[in-house]
Amino acid sequence: MLLEPLGPNLRTRAHRPLTTLQFGAAAGAAVMAVTSAGDVLLLGVLLGVAAGNVEGGAASVLAGLVVLGRFGTTSLAALAGAQHVVGPAGTTGPVILAAASWCAAAALTLSTRSEFGIAAVFGVAAANEVAGPAAVSVQSFAIRIAASLLAVAVAWFVGGWVPPRLARTAAVLVGILGVVLVLVG
Question: 83 is in which domain, residue-wise?
């Protein structure tokens, strides 16, 4: 049986082992994203450390700045409360601010790595940006689960199939766009 080597145009999921620091940052970010406890900017820094690159960290912090500009606080608990009262950030309020929330979520999903665990953390954080971390009723819980599953799938796809240099650059640009939209709105 003859097998040809992978061509230059065929991408594979290249496994890069996580360092202890990256694994710890991913675990901390996962706990913060799932429990809605802590600070959005700290979550952004932890996601940047888990991603292992400056661009991913910058995009994650820019997503946190979108939350700060939209809700006036960086507390994940306050974000959960605000989105419980007002509704999901991606569908309520002025269109410009809703678009800024979508930009923040896109920045997070574009700045992930190809490992499923890291992509899952980035996906849950992105879902929190758009659908809200509050799950106080059956309907809000279903929306959060659906948004989380979709965001994790998108983040895992981006991490494995979009060229990393392109994805990181796009993540930073979309994060900047989200901040500009918040400032305009």
Answer: 36-184
